[in-house]
């Protein structure tokens, strides 16, 4: 951790997605959609982000074929297997995988993250999400998805179980005493004997405590439930905020919630998304943005928008306004994204076509087109004006958009003293200035050996 | 596939396990138990196996902390994350992960194997197992584990669902038509709409069809249920057989079962386990075997044996005989291992101490100590006498035991024309002479787009 006198530095995460975040990126000549199932493509992206000294790379995830395969490039790597493959070709950058708490088991999830943390020498992060679509539920034997509040109840217990499992081995449990034939001190490996509302898990985990103790805990929902969950558990938050004022409001709101969980403001880093459309001149950046907009398939944009708004918009005139929308309380999917999109359309009086264009780059995340200097100015403003501890960087096209950011924006941030010029830590927790959690072994009741097998 | 006139060649799989298969290996000076949570250690093992042109490497798995952590080195990597990390440092060798059908979901499992298959360029294999211990059940909310027959019922349906998911994209579904903005032909991506006794899964998978179509399907249980399952689904079988006669009996039994599923003998390769204790002279090999036996901790051996036999043996005199045992039909864990061990003790009239020594190297798999020439003779005999299509090679100590096998046994097998001198195929299926399955897309009923998200 930095000394108290060291300057506050921002944190940068590269959010990687197929051919890029713009929904038409794969049609643009600067992208390589034929490579989205080639691990070497993602290796290049990870190594580029590491060259820029970014804190981490990150993959989103969903448990159903999103309704986009007709008009958008889908790589489809599962994040944990993909990040394990990237761990071996990188050395310092953090590796954040999205895993849902809705259709997984805490034992599997805790174990896979412990495994990734060992594999990567302490670089694993878990973006904790809930699954909120009917299509996901139907891949797991459910006809309807869980109600929003219940999903978060389950998520809280899921994380509690995972933490107990990661802590079921003390750091010094392995003795490796070849002479006496004692590998581990079983007094330092204990069952967790968890019995809760959603899970009953005996433990201990079958992996020793990993370099970071726990992976970095990340969260990405901005609803009331999501913000409260973040304040309780998350160490970094990805969020979509369109304006500085919105960003400041969210930042203050979430930071203010920390105290009730005995946490300080710095214990959680807030990273709004930014989709930077970079040009060597402002005109060039705007032209690139327009090129991407021109490549959009309206049918696709309308389907995406229907999903975000929980409202079937098909057949409506593209140059007309949004129809009347439900209330947020009636949305059981991504509540915060619903509200953001509805507010954006209302505030700026957008037609459907205009809204589709505005959402094309970042699906609700902020899009900013400009020169590297202008982009650095924006990041600095949000960072110094109480809206961000760093950014979730979402290049509109890949690999070029990430290369441009690393080669042209990062050096400006470094020159301004806002960003590291070399990694100072070896683990993801160190990059984000988060301490390694001390183990909290359950009180000894029974021996850990369990039944021999 | 080889032309009909090409000679029959054996298949070799390296079964990798921590410091080696002998339960005392980690105490031996030739092993490196301090490295069992270091991915570079496993990278070296994988590269060594690839240097020997072996068909594949393989990791076993269990979903609870086996009762061995006090006296045996436990790495604890989760196999799919570990193999993904090994995929990027190898080029040709197959990568076989054990995943249980008892406490997993077919959607997750199908997806992770498709992901590994893409990552590795077609080198993924799935060792399909059921989980049969109470300690595993208790990590997944169950107080008791599923009855043996029911576990296999679930396993069959699990595999059927996984196959449907892998086939839910036709090979040519991705069009990548940048000009028209059409990424995939959604007429070639379909829901599977599976509704069975254990699973309801809508599909399609959110990963396009992988290089091999399906991962190689491997199975490792030798009970009646296990043999029938293998005959129906498996393309390779790992099995523990102590004598040539037992091996021949098993081989004939399983091959004879294939016809009722419309399969030919060559559609399934049988690989008995062999734990080769290698010395430059026979005396040196026997001395190494004795050294390992002398390092055994009897308490550990007794606990392992109690687990295999479903009978608490603690406190019994080590130099006395086995007590009366239950019948196989009353065993709900690994039935075939129970029978093998009980038969071994009876046939050779072993005391508990002798039985523990005999099981130390391979947990019931055959152990053979000798020179490279003698080991090659044994492999050739089983291969030519109708007991094996290849071998599951289980080095007693690692990395040395694998290095010795690759450097000294493999060249003899190559000289005899029994084993490849170069890889001829690029995928795991090609190594095992198994065809790439044609897609079997479900009839079109509904569009694959599902709900937009």
From TrEMBL, chains A, B:
Keyword entries, A-Z: Flavoprotein, FMN, Monooxygenase, Oxidoreductase
Keyword Oxidoreductase: yes
UniProt-listed Pfam families: Bac_luciferase (PF00296)
Domain Luciferase-like: 31-387
Keyword Zinc-finger among record annotations: no
Region (Disordered): 428-453
SUPFAM superfamilies: Bacterial luciferase-like
GO molecular function, one term: monooxygenase activity
Signal peptide: none
Protein residues bound to FMN: 61, 98, 148, 152, 222-223
NCBIfam families: FMN_nitrolo (TIGR03860)
Family, as annotated: Belongs to the NtaA/SnaA/DszA monooxygenase family.
UniProt name for this protein: Monooxygenase
Protein species of origin: Streptomyces glebosus
Gene name of the encoded protein: ssuD_1
């Amino acid at each position: 951790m930095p000394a108290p006198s060291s300057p506050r530095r921002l944190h940068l995460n590269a959010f990687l997605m197929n051919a890029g975040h713009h929904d038409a990126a794969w049609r643009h000549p600067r992208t390589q959609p034929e490579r989205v199932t080639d691990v070497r493509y993602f290796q290049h992206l990870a190594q580029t982000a590491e060259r820029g000294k970014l804190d981490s790379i990150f993959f989103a995830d969903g448990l159903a074929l999103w309704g986009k395969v007709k008009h958008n490039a889908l790589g489809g790597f599962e994040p944990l297997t993909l990040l394990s493959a990237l761990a071996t070709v990188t050395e310092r950058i953090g590796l954040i995988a999205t895993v849902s708490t809705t259709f997984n088991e805490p034992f599997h999830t805790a174990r896979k993250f412990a495994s990734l943390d060992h594999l990567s020498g302490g670089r694993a992060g878990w973006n904790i999400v809930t699954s909120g679509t009917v299509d996901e539920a139907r891949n797991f034997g459910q006809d309807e998805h869980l109600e929003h509040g219940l999903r978060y109840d389950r998520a809280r217990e899921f994380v509690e179980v995972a933490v107990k499992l990661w802590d079921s081995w003390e750091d010094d449990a392995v003795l490796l005493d070849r002479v006496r034939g004692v590998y581990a001190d079983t007094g330092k490996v204990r069952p967790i004997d968890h019995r809760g509302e959603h899970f009953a898990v005996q433990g201990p985990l079958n992996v020793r405590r990993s370099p970071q103790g726990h992976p970095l805990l990340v969260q990405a929902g901005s609803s009331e439930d999501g913000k409260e969950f973040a304040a309780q558990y998350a160490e970094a938050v990805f969020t979509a905020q369109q304006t500085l004022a919105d960003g400041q409001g969210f930042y203050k709101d979430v930071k203010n919630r920390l105290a009730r969980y005995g946490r300080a403001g710095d214990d959680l880093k807030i990273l709004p998304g930014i989709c930077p459309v970079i040009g060597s001149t402002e005109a060039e950046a705007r032209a690139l943005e327009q090129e991407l907009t021109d490549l959009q398939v309206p049918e696709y944009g309308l389907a995406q928008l229907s999903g975000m708004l929980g409202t079937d918009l098909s057949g409506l005139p593209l140059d007309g306004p949004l129809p009347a929308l439900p209330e947020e309380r009636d949305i059981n999917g991504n509540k915060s994204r619903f509200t953001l999109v509805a507010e954006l359309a209302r505030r700026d009086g957008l037609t459907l076509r205009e809204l589709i264009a505005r959402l094309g780059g970042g699906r609700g995340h902020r899009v900013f087109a400009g020169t590297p200097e202008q982009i650095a100015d924006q990041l600095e403003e949000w960072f110094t004006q109480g809206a961000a501890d760093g950014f979730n960087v979402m290049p509109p096209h890949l690999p070029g958009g990430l290369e441009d950011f690393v080669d042209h924006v990062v050096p400006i941030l470094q020159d301004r003293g806002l960003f590291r010029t070399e990694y100072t830590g070896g683990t993801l927790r160190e990059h984000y200035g988060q301490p390694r959690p001390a183990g909290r072994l359950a009180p000894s009741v029974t021996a850990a050996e369990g039944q021999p097998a």
